[in-house]
Write a structure and sequence with these properties.
Elements: E1 21-22, E2 26-28, H1 38-50, E3 54-61, E4 64-72, H2 73-77, E5 91-97, E6 102-112, H3 130-137, H4 143-154, E7 158-163, E8 169-171, H5 179-187, E9 195-204, H6 205-209, H7 213-232
Length: 264
């Protein structure tokens, strides 16, 4: 018998539903029970899968949030200057792009501001942020290039790079750049703009609607596992999934595509 449990939890006990990903308003988190709320489900699954605490961050208010992030607490704690904030940490994230009507599941590293507004002084890039490690990895022939090429060229992931206050550079299969060019794009982000790098798998509105809630949760966790090698290249403290067969993506394919959400 195949074990279809998700982080040790039976799919039947997961109350998350596809309609909680609302392509007009965002990710529904309010007015739900614990077993229906994506924040609780993913946090517990990540902690069970990696055997360590995660911190949840979000952008939004009220019932619907636009973006939710999950970062390993140990990596933040290890930062000598910035352990009190989460901006400098690599994160898994889920988000709904209401303009393009796409559900995004991926990871990101933020640069923040180089010259921060006075009221956002805590968001200024510090020497211990993961951003510096990301930028150093953008070299020809590096492990980062190997992973990004596989994810974008073979697996259908997309990247956004640069300023988040203007149109960001979008990287897809047909526009995959050399690492030096990607680094120049990141370096060119204006110092007074918030900037960062995201890599994510895009789920269309149709794909989400055709899936079950447990299938979507399983697919999100598969994306997180697949992106773990990239995130580990950026962090002070690496994470490891307890099941090595699905942790590294080293075989060159996504670790679990049984979920209907994976099939286009």
């Amino acid at each position: 018998m195949v074990d279809r449990s998700i982080a040790g939890v039976s799919p039947a006990s997961i109350g998350f539903r596809p309609e909680f990903l609302d392509f007009d308003r965002g990710i529904r988190v309010g007015n739900l029970k614990d077993h229906e709320r994506i924040t609780r489900i993913l946090k517990l699954a990540l902690e069970a899968g990696c055997g360590e605490p995660f911190v949840t961050e979000r952008w939004g208010r009220g019932v619907f949030w636009r973006w939710i992030g999950f970062l390993p607490r140990a990596n933040r704690t290890a930062m000598p200057l910035s352990s009190h904030v989460s901006f400098g940490c690599s994160k898994f994230f889920v988000a709904v792009d209401t303009e393009e009507r796409v559900f995004q599941c991926g990871m990101q590293v933020e640069r923040g501001y180089v010259r921060a507004p006075r009221e956002y002084h805590q968001c200024r890039l510090a020497a211990d942020w993961d951003w510096h490690r990301l930028v150093r990895q953008l070299r020809s022939g590096s492990p980062m290039e190997k992973h990004l090429r596989r994810l974008v060229l073979r697996e259908g992931f997309l990247c956004h790079a640069g300023s988040w206050e203007e149109e960001r550079c979008r990287i897809a299969k047909k526009s995959f750049p050399a690492m030096a060019a990607l680094r120049r794009t990141l370096d060119a982000a204006p110092a007074r703009h918030w900037a960062g790098f995201q890599i994510y798998y895009p789920f269309s509105e149709e794909e989400v609607g055709a899936s079950t809630g447990p299938d979507l949760i399983e697919a999100m966790l598969a994306v997180f596992r697949e992106l773990t090698p990239v995130m580990n290249l950026c962090m002070h403290v690496k994470i490891a999934w307890r099941n090595p067969a699905i942790s590294s993506g080293s075989e060159g394919h996504c670790p679990d595509r049984t979920s209907s959400a994976w099939h286009r």
